[in-house]
Amino acid sequence: MLDAMLAAELGDDVLDGDPTVRRLEAAYARWVGKEGALFLPSGTMANQVALGAWTRPGDELVAERSAHVVQWEAGAAAALHGVQVQTLAAPDGRLDPDELVRILRPASIHCPRTRLLCLEQSFMGDGSGPGGRVVPIAHLEGLARVARAHGLAIHLDGARLPNAVVAAGVPAARFAACADSVMTSLSKGLGAPVGAMLAGPAEFLARARELRKRFGGWMRQAGVLAGAGLHALEHHLARLADDHALARAVAVAFERHAGLRAFADQIESNIVMVQVERPGWTPERLTKALASEGVLTLPMSATSLRFVTHLDVGPPDVERLERALARILATG
Ligand SMILES: Cc1ncc(COP(=O)(O)O)c(C=O)c1O
Hints:
The protein is an alpha/beta fold.
């Protein structure tokens, strides 16, 4: 990847274009089967550019209540776009099409216009069950049919779409066909240092380009980063299966200990949620204890921790985790 970055042909993407960024945008658009794509600095910015491009102030979007666009983007839908969020609960990420129809509002001057449905694939979840669930393609296709029949645009937060593609054996373009726009992070499982892609139809991209400029997310000699992204798309997809196997091993390591539930038999991709139900232990206490053993994690909720596997961790790290857990939990 470093060689690809060093060898990247550079231009000025804000002026007449950076050739490596253009190659990356074309490669991603092909992968997801969309008309075109944009390179952005982060997944959050890509999501927010998409939300802004599909909506106008006073509109409403619908998403699962723990979705990244609802919980983890600092209220951006409201703060940046004046968009109201209506949430549905679906702990496995499978929004119920009938429930969606029930919450749609009548076309009336008194009501917000429900404009956008935001989906997430893989679905991170809220920590109460297994994370990184892959929403089945048949479910997504059914949901998309219903949403489109009611005039909604659909944005797919595919920060970890590559994981879903590898886990389900479904082409990215088939998942992406369930949405009008799709974003993917290059800096998660794919292992690039920075960047996210946003794809969609030409008219959407014209508006998205304007918003990317407004947010300051248009980068000049960005080919040095796009080179990493291209390398990731070309070389780091198939290996995601290793991350998924490792995630199952992480979950099994936790489940060897009473009061730590990690849903080992339900791990589908690279996220492991651990419910801490062990007397005397909280996610904070376990996080600190693991950190003192060199194992880093993120408290996800008042009762859970999140672990993510990626190309920089391997089986020896799981063995290290096993030893750390044995030492820590022996004390109480
Ligand atoms: C589902 C999901 N969407 C979007 C993002 C945002 O990506 P970034 O961290 O690149 O802003 C994340 C990051 O964790 C994510 O998990």
